[in-house]
Amino acid sequence: MLWNRYLSGYDYSPALGLVMAGGGYPVTTMIEATLDGAAFEADSVADLPIYNWDFCFASVGNGSDLISIGGSGFNDQLVYRHSGAAGVWEQLPNTLQSRYGSGCGLVIEDGKRYIVAVGGGYVGPSDTSEVLDLDTMQWSEGEMDIVVYSINTKLKKANIQGPVFLTFSAT
User: pTM of this prediction?
Assistant: First the structure.
């Protein structure tokens, strides 16, 4: 890796491989990617538009398009989408609730693509989820009813087409 990735956002992109963004100490906006786990490149994706850590980062499943959701206290509802074709970040509508330390992933249902964000929150645990429709770019409340974030726990996720499975690890 080219940078310390403490509390970074990350996901797998079919076009870029493992993509790691932000995080670090000191915090960075740099993004790096690797297709083989050995050679890391920092010029395949434009830097994040803001300094961020403990945020959710997901591939939208079509090339090098990426989504950044929530994160550090002053960014906890901000959402950005990276267009791989244009090579730029654009700000999308904010999440409905704070998503500091949340998990997210791509879900494809009946040919439609959604990003599901779960848990997180800047103060205390959250038992909420919300769904971003990638066609309309609008958020709606999700239907999950479990507590998925607690103090000193970082939410991790596996990004698959279908159900989103969540696991936890101590930090």
Answer: 0.80
